[in-house]
Amino acid sequence: MMDEGFELVVKNPGIPYYNPMIQKAIEKEIPVITEVELAYQISEAPLIGITGTNGKTTTTTLIFEMLEAGNKHPLIAGNIGTVASGVAQEATAENTIVIELSSFQLMGIDQFKPGISIITNLYDAHLDYHGTRTEYIGAKARITQNQTEEDFLIINADQDECMAIARNSRAQIVPFSTRKVLENGAYVKDGWVCFYGEQIIETKDIVLPGKHNLENILSAVAATLLSGADKEAIRKVLTTFAGVRHRLQYVATIDERKFYNDSKATNILATENALAAFDAPIVLLAGGLDRGNSFDELVPSLKNVKTLITFGETAEKVGQAGHDAGIKTILRADNVEKAVPVAFEHSEAGDVILLSPACASWDQYKTFEVRGDMFIEAVHKLK
Protein backbone atom coordinates (compact mmCIF):
# COMPACT_ATOMS: atom_id res chain seq x y z
CA MET A 1 0.00 0.00 0.00
CA MET A 2 2.93 2.32 0.67
CA ASP A 3 3.97 2.01 -2.97
CA GLU A 4 1.03 4.12 -4.17
CA GLY A 5 2.76 7.48 -4.05
CA PHE A 6 1.61 8.77 -0.66
CA GLU A 7 3.23 12.06 0.39
CA LEU A 8 1.88 12.17 3.93
CA VAL A 9 0.39 9.88 6.58
CA VAL A 10 -2.02 11.37 9.15
CA LYS A 11 -2.01 8.89 12.03
CA ASN A 12 -4.73 8.41 14.61
CA PRO A 13 -3.01 9.22 17.94
CA GLY A 14 -3.94 5.85 19.44
CA ILE A 15 -2.12 3.84 16.76
CA PRO A 16 1.41 2.99 18.00
CA TYR A 17 4.47 3.78 15.95
CA TYR A 18 5.39 0.08 15.79
CA ASN A 19 2.31 -0.52 13.60
CA PRO A 20 3.61 -2.17 10.38
CA MET A 21 2.05 0.44 8.09
CA ILE A 22 3.53 3.29 10.14
CA GLN A 23 6.92 1.59 10.21
CA LYS A 24 6.79 1.19 6.43
CA ALA A 25 6.02 4.91 6.01
CA ILE A 26 8.94 5.83 8.26
CA GLU A 27 11.26 3.54 6.29
CA LYS A 28 10.19 5.28 3.07
CA GLU A 29 10.71 8.70 4.76
CA ILE A 30 7.04 9.58 4.32
CA PRO A 31 6.10 12.15 7.02
CA VAL A 32 3.82 10.69 9.73
CA ILE A 33 1.81 13.33 11.60
CA THR A 34 -1.26 13.54 13.80
CA GLU A 35 -4.16 15.72 12.76
CA VAL A 36 -3.28 18.53 15.21
CA GLU A 37 -0.24 19.20 13.02
CA LEU A 38 -2.55 19.42 10.04
CA ALA A 39 -4.80 21.79 12.01
CA TYR A 40 -1.85 24.09 12.71
CA GLN A 41 -0.77 24.15 9.09
CA ILE A 42 -4.21 25.21 7.80
CA SER A 43 -5.31 27.49 10.66
CA GLU A 44 -5.53 31.26 10.33
CA ALA A 45 -6.31 31.56 14.05
CA PRO A 46 -3.78 31.76 16.90
CA LEU A 47 -3.61 28.68 19.13
CA ILE A 48 -3.60 28.12 22.87
CA GLY A 49 -2.41 24.55 23.51
CA ILE A 50 -2.99 22.71 26.79
CA THR A 51 -1.33 19.45 27.83
CA GLY A 52 -0.34 17.66 31.04
CA THR A 53 -1.40 14.55 32.92
CA ASN A 54 -4.38 15.90 34.87
CA GLY A 55 -6.56 18.97 34.48
CA LYS A 56 -6.33 19.40 30.70
CA THR A 57 -10.06 19.33 30.02
CA THR A 58 -10.97 21.63 32.91
CA THR A 59 -8.25 24.12 31.97
CA THR A 60 -9.20 24.04 28.29
CA THR A 61 -12.86 24.62 29.12
CA LEU A 62 -12.09 27.43 31.56
CA ILE A 63 -9.98 29.29 29.00
CA PHE A 64 -12.66 28.87 26.34
CA GLU A 65 -15.38 30.15 28.71
CA MET A 66 -13.25 33.10 29.87
CA LEU A 67 -12.37 34.17 26.32
CA GLU A 68 -16.01 33.83 25.30
CA ALA A 69 -17.10 35.96 28.25
CA GLY A 70 -14.52 38.51 27.10
CA ASN A 71 -15.89 38.51 23.50
CA LYS A 72 -12.67 37.05 22.07
CA HIS A 73 -14.43 34.59 19.71
CA PRO A 74 -12.74 31.38 20.90
CA LEU A 75 -13.16 27.93 19.37
CA ILE A 76 -12.50 24.72 21.30
CA ALA A 77 -10.77 21.68 19.80
CA GLY A 78 -8.53 18.66 20.20
CA ASN A 79 -8.57 15.82 22.68
CA ILE A 80 -11.64 17.34 24.35
CA GLY A 81 -13.81 15.81 21.63
CA THR A 82 -13.87 18.16 18.62
CA VAL A 83 -11.54 17.39 15.70
CA ALA A 84 -8.89 20.11 15.56
CA SER A 85 -8.43 20.12 11.80
CA GLY A 86 -12.16 20.54 11.28
CA VAL A 87 -12.25 23.49 13.68
CA ALA A 88 -9.13 25.01 12.08
CA GLN A 89 -10.70 24.81 8.65
CA GLU A 90 -13.56 27.07 9.78
CA ALA A 91 -11.46 29.43 11.94
CA THR A 92 -10.46 32.95 10.92
CA ALA A 93 -7.84 35.36 12.25
CA GLU A 94 -10.58 36.80 14.51
CA ASN A 95 -10.81 33.52 16.43
CA THR A 96 -8.55 31.85 18.98
CA ILE A 97 -8.44 28.05 18.98
CA VAL A 98 -8.16 26.58 22.47
CA ILE A 99 -6.88 23.03 21.96
CA GLU A 100 -6.44 20.16 24.41
CA LEU A 101 -3.45 17.99 23.47
CA SER A 102 -2.55 14.45 24.52
CA SER A 103 0.97 13.05 24.54
CA PHE A 104 -0.11 10.79 21.67
CA GLN A 105 -1.08 13.80 19.55
CA LEU A 106 2.10 15.71 20.38
CA MET A 107 4.30 12.83 19.24
CA GLY A 108 3.06 13.45 15.71
CA ILE A 109 3.84 17.17 15.30
CA ASP A 110 6.43 18.84 13.10
CA GLN A 111 5.87 22.59 12.83
CA PHE A 112 3.03 22.86 15.37
CA LYS A 113 3.51 26.00 17.48
CA PRO A 114 0.93 27.48 19.84
CA GLY A 115 1.35 31.14 20.72
CA ILE A 116 0.50 30.15 24.29
CA SER A 117 1.17 26.65 25.61
CA ILE A 118 0.35 25.18 29.02
CA ILE A 119 1.71 22.14 30.85
CA THR A 120 -0.62 21.57 33.81
CA ASN A 121 1.38 18.86 35.64
CA LEU A 122 3.27 15.62 35.02
CA TYR A 123 2.58 12.23 36.62
CA ASP A 124 2.97 8.63 35.46
CA ALA A 125 0.47 7.88 32.69
CA HIS A 126 0.23 5.91 29.43
CA LEU A 127 3.50 4.11 30.16
CA ASP A 128 2.11 1.08 28.33
CA TYR A 129 2.26 3.25 25.17
CA HIS A 130 5.37 5.33 25.84
CA GLY A 131 7.44 2.68 27.61
CA THR A 132 9.14 4.96 30.13
CA ARG A 133 8.36 8.09 32.12
CA THR A 134 11.19 9.88 30.29
CA GLU A 135 9.58 9.14 26.92
CA TYR A 136 6.18 10.28 28.22
CA ILE A 137 7.55 13.58 29.54
CA GLY A 138 9.47 14.07 26.32
CA ALA A 139 6.22 13.75 24.37
CA LYS A 140 4.57 16.37 26.57
CA ALA A 141 7.55 18.71 26.16
CA ARG A 142 7.00 18.76 22.40
CA ILE A 143 4.24 21.33 22.94
CA THR A 144 6.94 23.99 23.32
CA GLN A 145 9.64 22.64 20.97
CA ASN A 146 8.82 25.11 18.16
CA GLN A 147 7.97 28.09 20.34
CA THR A 148 10.10 31.24 20.07
CA GLU A 149 10.76 34.28 22.21
CA GLU A 150 7.48 35.77 21.00
CA ASP A 151 5.48 32.89 22.54
CA PHE A 152 4.51 31.97 26.10
CA LEU A 153 4.88 28.74 28.08
CA ILE A 154 2.66 28.63 31.16
CA ILE A 155 3.99 25.91 33.44
CA ASN A 156 3.63 24.36 36.89
CA ALA A 157 6.37 25.84 39.07
CA ASP A 158 5.64 23.33 41.84
CA GLN A 159 7.04 20.41 39.81
CA ASP A 160 10.75 20.08 39.06
CA GLU A 161 10.14 18.09 35.86
CA CYS A 162 7.94 20.87 34.51
CA MET A 163 10.56 23.50 35.28
CA ALA A 164 13.20 21.36 33.55
CA ILE A 165 11.10 21.60 30.40
CA ALA A 166 10.86 25.37 30.91
CA ARG A 167 14.64 25.70 31.07
CA ASN A 168 14.90 24.12 27.62
CA SER A 169 12.18 26.25 26.05
CA ARG A 170 12.81 29.41 24.04
CA ALA A 171 9.37 30.80 24.98
CA GLN A 172 8.72 33.40 27.65
CA ILE A 173 8.12 31.39 30.84
CA VAL A 174 5.01 32.19 32.90
CA PRO A 175 5.03 29.97 36.00
CA PHE A 176 2.06 29.26 38.27
CA SER A 177 2.04 27.95 41.83
CA THR A 178 -0.39 27.20 44.64
CA ARG A 179 2.51 27.00 47.14
CA LYS A 180 4.57 30.14 46.64
CA VAL A 181 4.30 33.76 45.53
CA LEU A 182 5.58 34.32 41.99
CA GLU A 183 5.69 38.01 41.12
CA ASN A 184 6.34 37.05 37.48
CA GLY A 185 3.47 34.56 37.20
CA ALA A 186 0.15 33.35 38.63
CA TYR A 187 -0.19 32.49 42.31
CA VAL A 188 -2.35 32.70 45.43
CA LYS A 189 -1.68 35.28 48.11
CA ASP A 190 -3.80 36.33 51.10
CA GLY A 191 -6.83 34.52 49.72
CA TRP A 192 -6.58 36.06 46.26
CA VAL A 193 -5.72 34.66 42.85
CA CYS A 194 -3.01 37.00 41.56
CA PHE A 195 -1.24 37.54 38.26
CA TYR A 196 1.98 39.56 38.02
CA GLY A 197 1.22 41.25 41.36
CA GLU A 198 -2.38 42.13 40.50
CA GLN A 199 -5.33 40.70 42.45
CA ILE A 200 -7.82 39.00 40.13
CA ILE A 201 -10.45 37.25 42.30
CA GLU A 202 -10.83 36.12 45.92
CA THR A 203 -10.61 32.34 46.23
CA LYS A 204 -13.76 32.27 48.41
CA ASP A 205 -15.79 33.52 45.43
CA ILE A 206 -14.67 30.62 43.16
CA VAL A 207 -17.31 27.88 42.92
CA LEU A 208 -15.01 25.19 41.49
CA PRO A 209 -13.66 23.21 44.50
CA GLY A 210 -10.25 21.73 45.18
CA LYS A 211 -6.56 22.58 45.22
CA HIS A 212 -6.02 20.72 41.94
CA ASN A 213 -8.66 22.93 40.34
CA LEU A 214 -6.90 25.98 41.74
CA GLU A 215 -3.87 24.95 39.66
CA ASN A 216 -6.13 24.74 36.60
CA ILE A 217 -7.59 28.16 37.41
CA LEU A 218 -4.17 29.80 37.76
CA SER A 219 -3.01 28.55 34.36
CA ALA A 220 -6.33 29.51 32.74
CA VAL A 221 -6.19 33.01 34.23
CA ALA A 222 -2.66 33.47 32.91
CA ALA A 223 -3.58 32.30 29.40
CA THR A 224 -6.72 34.42 29.30
CA LEU A 225 -5.01 37.62 30.40
CA LEU A 226 -2.12 37.04 27.99
CA SER A 227 -4.76 36.69 25.26
CA GLY A 228 -6.15 40.13 26.04
CA ALA A 229 -9.35 39.30 27.93
CA ASP A 230 -10.21 41.36 31.01
CA LYS A 231 -10.58 40.53 34.69
CA GLU A 232 -14.35 40.91 34.61
CA ALA A 233 -14.67 38.08 32.10
CA ILE A 234 -12.52 35.88 34.36
CA ARG A 235 -14.55 36.74 37.47
CA LYS A 236 -17.82 36.04 35.66
CA VAL A 237 -16.69 32.52 34.75
CA LEU A 238 -15.06 31.63 38.07
CA THR A 239 -18.12 32.64 40.08
CA THR A 240 -20.47 30.51 37.93
CA PHE A 241 -18.46 27.64 36.41
CA ALA A 242 -19.62 24.41 38.08
CA GLY A 243 -16.99 22.20 36.45
CA VAL A 244 -16.63 19.96 33.45
CA ARG A 245 -19.31 17.27 33.30
CA HIS A 246 -18.32 14.19 35.33
CA ARG A 247 -15.15 15.88 36.67
CA LEU A 248 -15.96 17.05 40.21
CA GLN A 249 -19.09 18.61 38.73
CA TYR A 250 -21.45 20.42 41.08
CA VAL A 251 -24.93 18.98 40.52
CA ALA A 252 -27.33 20.44 43.09
CA THR A 253 -27.94 21.42 46.69
CA ILE A 254 -30.84 19.60 48.36
CA ASP A 255 -31.74 20.27 51.99
CA GLU A 256 -28.30 21.85 52.50
CA ARG A 257 -26.46 18.80 51.09
CA LYS A 258 -24.22 19.52 48.09
CA PHE A 259 -24.00 16.81 45.43
CA TYR A 260 -20.90 16.42 43.22
CA ASN A 261 -20.45 14.10 40.24
CA ASP A 262 -16.86 12.91 39.80
CA SER A 263 -17.59 9.82 37.72
CA LYS A 264 -14.41 10.49 35.68
CA ALA A 265 -12.43 9.42 38.78
CA THR A 266 -11.59 5.95 37.45
CA ASN A 267 -8.48 5.48 39.60
CA ILE A 268 -7.40 5.99 43.21
CA LEU A 269 -5.37 9.16 42.57
CA ALA A 270 -8.35 10.93 41.04
CA THR A 271 -10.53 10.05 44.03
CA GLU A 272 -7.81 11.19 46.43
CA ASN A 273 -7.81 14.58 44.67
CA ALA A 274 -11.59 14.79 44.87
CA LEU A 275 -11.65 14.00 48.58
CA ALA A 276 -8.97 16.60 49.24
CA ALA A 277 -11.16 19.25 47.59
CA PHE A 278 -13.62 19.46 50.49
CA ASP A 279 -13.44 20.49 54.14
CA ALA A 280 -17.06 19.50 54.87
CA PRO A 281 -17.98 15.96 55.98
CA ILE A 282 -18.33 13.64 52.98
CA VAL A 283 -20.70 10.83 52.09
CA LEU A 284 -18.70 8.94 49.44
CA LEU A 285 -20.11 6.72 46.70
CA ALA A 286 -17.36 4.46 45.30
CA GLY A 287 -16.77 1.18 43.50
CA GLY A 288 -16.78 -0.34 40.02
CA LEU A 289 -14.67 -2.58 37.82
CA ASP A 290 -12.27 -4.89 39.66
CA ARG A 291 -8.80 -4.66 38.08
CA GLY A 292 -7.23 -6.79 40.79
CA ASN A 293 -5.77 -3.97 42.91
CA SER A 294 -6.45 -3.25 46.56
CA PHE A 295 -7.52 0.16 47.85
CA ASP A 296 -5.01 0.46 50.68
CA GLU A 297 -3.59 3.63 49.12
CA LEU A 298 -6.98 5.30 49.48
CA VAL A 299 -7.19 4.81 53.25
CA PRO A 300 -5.33 8.00 54.34
CA SER A 301 -7.61 10.12 52.13
CA LEU A 302 -10.79 8.79 53.75
CA LYS A 303 -10.33 10.67 57.02
CA ASN A 304 -13.08 13.18 56.19
CA VAL A 305 -15.55 10.52 54.98
CA LYS A 306 -18.35 9.97 57.51
CA THR A 307 -20.33 7.44 55.44
CA LEU A 308 -19.23 5.15 52.61
CA ILE A 309 -21.65 3.65 50.08
CA THR A 310 -20.06 0.98 47.86
CA PHE A 311 -21.26 -0.69 44.67
CA GLY A 312 -20.00 -2.79 41.75
CA GLU A 313 -17.38 -5.53 41.60
CA THR A 314 -15.05 -3.77 44.05
CA ALA A 315 -17.72 -3.05 46.67
CA GLU A 316 -16.15 -5.39 49.22
CA LYS A 317 -12.59 -4.16 48.61
CA VAL A 318 -13.58 -0.49 48.85
CA GLY A 319 -15.59 -1.30 51.97
CA GLN A 320 -12.49 -2.90 53.52
CA ALA A 321 -10.52 0.30 52.88
CA GLY A 322 -13.30 2.23 54.60
CA HIS A 323 -13.17 -0.16 57.56
CA ASP A 324 -9.39 0.28 57.78
CA ALA A 325 -9.90 4.06 57.75
CA GLY A 326 -12.28 3.82 60.72
CA ILE A 327 -15.46 4.84 58.87
CA LYS A 328 -18.36 3.83 61.11
CA THR A 329 -21.13 3.68 58.51
CA ILE A 330 -20.32 1.51 55.47
CA LEU A 331 -23.23 0.40 53.30
CA ARG A 332 -23.57 -1.46 50.02
CA ALA A 333 -25.90 -0.63 47.13
CA ASP A 334 -26.66 -2.49 43.90
CA ASN A 335 -25.61 0.44 41.70
CA VAL A 336 -25.14 4.20 41.57
CA GLU A 337 -28.85 4.93 41.14
CA LYS A 338 -29.73 3.04 44.30
CA ALA A 339 -26.75 4.45 46.19
CA VAL A 340 -27.96 8.06 45.88
CA PRO A 341 -31.09 7.85 48.09
CA VAL A 342 -29.15 5.74 50.60
CA ALA A 343 -26.45 8.43 50.73
CA PHE A 344 -29.05 11.14 51.21
CA GLU A 345 -30.73 9.19 54.01
CA HIS A 346 -27.40 8.91 55.87
CA SER A 347 -26.37 12.55 55.41
CA GLU A 348 -26.96 15.77 57.32
CA ALA A 349 -27.19 19.45 56.45
CA GLY A 350 -23.73 20.74 55.49
CA ASP A 351 -22.51 17.40 54.12
CA VAL A 352 -21.08 16.80 50.66
CA ILE A 353 -22.44 13.76 48.80
CA LEU A 354 -19.73 12.77 46.34
CA LEU A 355 -19.66 10.20 43.55
CA SER A 356 -15.95 9.49 43.05
CA PRO A 357 -15.71 5.78 42.26
CA ALA A 358 -11.89 5.21 42.11
CA CYS A 359 -12.73 2.53 39.52
CA ALA A 360 -13.64 2.18 35.88
CA SER A 361 -17.34 1.81 35.11
CA TRP A 362 -17.38 -1.19 32.77
CA ASP A 363 -18.70 -3.74 35.25
CA GLN A 364 -22.10 -2.01 35.29
CA TYR A 365 -22.02 0.90 32.83
CA LYS A 366 -20.83 1.29 29.26
CA THR A 367 -18.84 4.45 30.10
CA PHE A 368 -18.05 6.71 33.04
CA GLU A 369 -20.31 9.30 31.34
CA VAL A 370 -23.30 6.95 31.57
CA ARG A 371 -22.49 6.27 35.23
CA GLY A 372 -22.33 10.01 35.94
CA ASP A 373 -25.58 10.66 34.10
CA MET A 374 -27.29 8.00 36.23
CA PHE A 375 -26.00 9.76 39.34
CA ILE A 376 -27.29 13.14 38.15
CA GLU A 377 -30.68 11.66 37.28
CA ALA A 378 -30.95 10.02 40.69
CA VAL A 379 -30.06 13.29 42.43
CA HIS A 380 -32.76 15.17 40.52
CA LYS A 381 -35.28 12.48 41.48
CA LEU A 382 -34.62 13.35 45.13
CA LYS A 383 -36.05 16.80 44.49
UniProtKB/TrEMBL annotation:
Subcellular location: Cytoplasm
Similarity comment: Belongs to the MurCDEF family.
Catalytic activity field: UDP-N-acetyl-alpha-D-muramoyl-L-alanine + D-glutamate + ATP = UDP-N-acetyl-alpha-D-muramoyl-L-alanyl-D-glutamate + ADP + phosphate + H(+)
GO cellular component: cytoplasm
Molecular function terms, GO-annotated: ATP binding; UDP-N-acetylmuramoylalanine-D-glutamate ligase activity
Enzyme class: ligase
Pathway it works in: Cell wall biogenesis; peptidoglycan biosynthesis
Chain residues that bind ATP: 52-58
Originating gene: murD
Species, as recorded: Mesobacillus boroniphilus JCM 21738
Mur ligase C-terminal domain span: 246-359
Protein name in the entry: UDP-N-acetylmuramoylalanine--D-glutamate ligase
Keywords: ATP-binding, Cell cycle, Cell division, Cell shape, Cell wall biogenesis/degradation, Cytoplasm, Ligase, Nucleotide-binding, Peptidoglycan synthesis
Gene3D superfamilies in the record: Mur ligase, C-terminal domain, Mur-like, catalytic domain, NAD(P)-binding Rossmann-like Domain
Example of a GO biological process term: cell wall organization
Domain Mur ligase central: 50-223
SUPFAM superfamilies reported in the protein's UniProt record: MurD-like peptide ligases, catalytic domain (SSF53623), MurD-like peptide ligases, peptide-binding domain (SSF53244)
EC number(s) stated in the UniProt entry for this protein: 6.3.2.9
Function per UniProt: Cell wall formation. Catalyzes the addition of glutamate to the nucleotide precursor UDP-N-acetylmuramoyl-L-alanine (UMA).
InterPro entries hit by this protein: Mur-like_cat_sf, Mur_ligase_C, Mur_ligase_C_dom_sf, Mur_ligase_cen, MurD
